[in-house]
Amino acid sequence: MVIRTVLFDFSGTLFRVEPTREWLRVVLGERGMCVSEAELGEWAEGLAAAGALPGGPAPRRIPDHLAEPWSVRDLDMERHRAAYTGLAREVPLPDEGLYDALYDRHMTPAAWSPYPDAEEVLRGLRERGVRIGVVSNIGWDLRPVFRTHGFDELVDTYTLSFEHGVQKPDARLFRSACEGLGSDPREVLMVGDDRRADGGAAELGCAVHFVDHLPAHARPAGLLPVLGLVDRGPAQ
């Protein structure tokens, strides 16, 4: 089957969020708080272990009182904020306002960097006449990230879980993406880093290709195989 449409996940696929230590350092600086490197490191390690940074390390454990908010965090903006600020509050910080400030920081375009080959792959697909969509489990509008980094012109549609009230791997989210692009699922390739969530596209008959969720500098060419899959078609 010829691939005429490619859907991409956002975090860990096209973009990577800044490291937890830098995330915390920026917010502390914005609030005029001076701390030692030892304190910064201790708090950053705690936040990373808690999974408080969306797009960063996964939580090592989910506290019982956050189990329900965590399971539905990508269905709307309020639940997303509640889940992640709740995880952050597992780490005692000196200012209560830091928890919301940290959450707000992660939504800024400055907190995200594209993978080194992301632009090359998106432009290569454009040159081939392939339609491009972004399908993400997320609780906020990521479009400003794409606009700021000059990628918005390379994306035809965004299908975001919080706008549809459905989260991957539910096939309804992928179906909405396909319908929005006027695409037959059998001619669609889904590219993502989460085998469970992104693998849900296979239920519709989409081909699926996985990349590793690594820091941007550690994955310089992880997306390039997508161009080959489009050129020759996915393995049957």
From TrEMBL:
PANTHER family: HALOACID DEHALOGENASE-LIKE HYDROLASE (HAD) SUPERFAMILY PROTEIN, PTHR46649
Listed InterPro entries: HAD-like_sf, HAD-SF_hydro_IA, HAD_sf
Keywords for the protein's UniProt record, in alphabetical order: Hydrolase
Protein name, as recorded: HAD-IA family hydrolase
Gene3D superfamilies in alphabetical order: HAD superfamily/HAD-like
Hydrolase in keyword set: yes
Molecular-function GO term, any one: hydrolase activity
Positions of transmembrane segments: none
One matching Pfam family: Hydrolase
